Structures are given as structure tokens and as C-alpha cells.
Amino acid sequence: MDWGHPEFVLSIIAMALTASVIKSAFHARYRSSKHELLHGPEARRNGGEVDVLRNENSRLIERLETHDDRIAVLERIVTDSSYRLGHEIEALREDKGKVQ
């Protein structure tokens, strides 16, 4: 393939640089970012990607604390002696029903 003169290669480089400059100017003028384009205007209202991530992080921490509390309650129920005693009584009833 014959690329011709060096002017051809230089013109391709010049076009790529020009397109890059135009793209940067467009993004700077309209203050759009990839994150905002993906997540809509919500990203701008929340102050950008950092605030969106902080909000999501705090929401997830709250959910985790709620789940920790629920697990603690379940552990208390399972380790409770009356719960264990109830299961033993039910097991004896089932064994007695099988024998008769």
C-alpha cells in the first residue's frame, strides 16, 4: 500500500488532533463527563462521581448494620436454651409417634 507523501500522514495526524481538541472543547463547554453521560443528570446534581459513590457507600453500610443486627437476633434465638428445649421436645414427640 502506497501512503504517498509525508503530507498525507501529517494530514491524518492533524485531523486526529483537531478532532480531539473539538471533543475536549465540547465537553468543557457543556461540562459533561463519561460518568454523567452514563448515569444522567443525577451525577451533576449530587456533585459528581465522588458524592454518588459516598451516598451509595453510606446506604450499603446502613444495610450491613441492619443485617448484622438481624443475625445477632437469630443467633440469640438459636442459642437460647428454651428454643433448644422446644426442639428436643418436638424430636421426642416425633420419635414417640413413629414407635406407635
Describe the overall structure.
The protein is mainly α and 100 residues long. The protein is built from five helices and no strands. The longest helix has 31 residues, at 49-79.
List keywords for this structure.
100 residues, mainly alpha, 5 helices, elongated
Number of strand segments: 0
Share of β-strand residues: under 5%
Q: Order of helices and strands, N to C?
A: HHHHH
Shape: elongated
Tell me the helix content.
over 70%
Query: So how many helices?
Result: 5
Task: Sketch the major β-sheet.
Answer: none
What structural class is derived from the secondary structure elements? mainly alpha
Walk me through the topology.
Layout: H1 6-30, H2 34-39, H3 42-45, H4 49-79, H5 81-99
Outline of the structure:
With 100 residues, this protein is mainly α.
